[in-house]
Amino acid sequence: MTYHSFWYYWAAFFGLILVRYFAVAGGAYLLFYGLPSRFSGGTGNTGGTGNTGGLLGRRLRSKPPQLQAIRQDIYLAMQSTLFFATAAAFVIWRYDRGETCLYADLSAYGYFYAVTSFGLVLILQDSYFYFIHRAFHQPFLFKHFHAGHHRSGDPTPWTSFAFDPAEACLQAIFLVGITFIIPLNFFVLIALLLTMTVWTVVNHLGFELFPASFSRHWLSKWLIGSTHHSLHHRKYRVHYGLYFTVWDKLLGTDDPAYELEFDDSLRSEKLPERLPERLPEKLSRQLSD
Ligand SMILES: [Zn+2]
Ligand SMILES: [Zn+2]
């Protein structure tokens, strides 16, 4: 078995995490924003059929994204990559010395445990994210820890990994922490990281992908999607979760208008007057006063 230095792993993970960001966020951006027709008119779609016309009718923003906002998001994401690469390198570096709870043989704890550990970490991460995210929306913490994530206003896939350094650091610490506490198979860890990547891109997509029943269905109403998280970016005081709506519902930060907003998100011709594009600037002015 070959062991490498911390900095060897750090360089490898820095490249890997950055390539992952540009591939997934960039790919989603090209797919959903690459064609000017997505924002240049059309009659919208109220039925959510999923074809190109349906996609136009499922947009959650009134204007095309600003290049400046995308640049800011990419800059923050590159900063975040520094923290996540450090976390990943640290974990593997300590794994080489037998100090983590990561394991390679899937049968060591059984398949049932592997699936259970996947679900458990999703729940733990969602809870951790909810409480730090809610704290970050206190005015002082917002200004120093979280304003960067909201700077672009309505999000795009590029916003999915755009965190202020302090927030990126706290999120990376969670991922390090679980590998020292909960026995996790490598495949489970990779599945968790892929889930996190894809889910956050969907949350920041700016298009609603799910069917009209999503916000009311007995099962999917517990899941966060594009409209749900877009409301967070518009209203600031609702929807702090990452994967699940449980904490928002339990602690009263669920937007009572969510179901109606979801219905409206499938009727985009109403959106221009409902999506205040410059709200973040107004909020940052208030915070700096
Ligand atoms: Zn926020
Ligand atoms: Zn967000």
From TrEMBL:
From the record, give the transmembrane residue ranges: 6-32, 74-95, 110-131, 172-199
Superkingdom, natural source: Bacteria
The UniProt keywords, alphabetically, are: Membrane, Transmembrane, Transmembrane helix
Look up the record and report any one GO term of the cellular component aspect: membrane
Q: Please give the biological process terms from Gene Ontology that the record holds.
A: lipid biosynthetic process
- Every copy of the Fatty acid hydroxylase domain together lies at 120-253
Q: Which Pfam families does the entry link to? A: FA_hydroxylase (PF04116)
Q: Does the keyword Transmembrane apply?
A: yes
Among the GO molecular function terms of this UniProt record, one is:
iron ion binding
Q: Does the keyword Lipoprotein apply?
A: no
Q: Where in the cell is it found?
A: Membrane
Instruction: Please give the name of this protein.
Output: Sterol desaturase family protein
Q: What is the lineage of its organism?
A: Bacteria, Bacillati, Cyanobacteriota, Cyanophyceae, Oculatellales
